[in-house]
Write a structure and sequence with these properties.
By secondary structure, the chain is an alpha/beta fold. Helices cover about 20% and strands about 35% of the residues. The longest helix has 11 residues.
Length: about 160
């Protein structure tokens, strides 16, 4: 199963200036729990904004640069190649950025969307593709209120691709 995991705002904002816009510890904790032990696929810019391979996961970086190398990471020149490298894993996570999400959705490479919806609108320079409810069906939702650690209301929402 190929799963996109992303935190987005009500206006589909993902980030600004190659960084996250908000700090939501509950989302970071959930991301770690869900992705640990699995392959994570990301674009080069996303990898460089994180700055290192994440522990206890196999990192696959998608880049057009045939000579790109990062110690401890696998390199792929397309999303399809990245998925092929991870094919033995029962859950493959695509973790960004915006262009990788867009290509994966448009090319129907994804089975599930695992979204943290931050219930605010933010100024951003990168956005998540609009979720087409003709193509995706919401299968679960957990709503959470602001608390001392998490400054925004947020929801964990899972969508699965509708069967044709």
């Amino acid at each position: 199963m190929v799963i996109i995991i992303a935190a987005i705002s009500k206006n589909n904002a993902l980030g600004k200036d190659n960084d996250l816009i908000w700090h939501l510890p509950a989302d970071l904790k959930r991301f770690k729990e869900v992705t640990t032990g699995h392959h994570i696929i990301m674009g080069r810019n996303t990898f460089e904004s994180i700055g290192k391979a994440l522990p206890n996961r196999t990192t696959i970086i998608v880049t057009r640069n045939k000579n790109y190398f990062k110690d401890g990471c696998l390199i792929a020149n397309s999303i399809e190649e990245a998925i092929e490298l991870a094919k033995e894993d029962d859950k493959i996570f695509i973790i960004g950025g915006a262009e990788i999400y867009k290509q994966a959705i448009e090319n129907k490479l994804v089975d599930k969307l695992d979204i943290t919806l931050v219930n605010e609108e933010f100024e951003a320079d990168v956005f998540f593709p609009k979720i087409d409810l003709q193509e995706w069906q919401e299968v679960s939702r957990e709503n959470h209120k602001t608390d001392e650690k998490n400054k925004y209301n947020y929801s964990f929402i899972s969508y699965e691709r509708k069967r044709e």
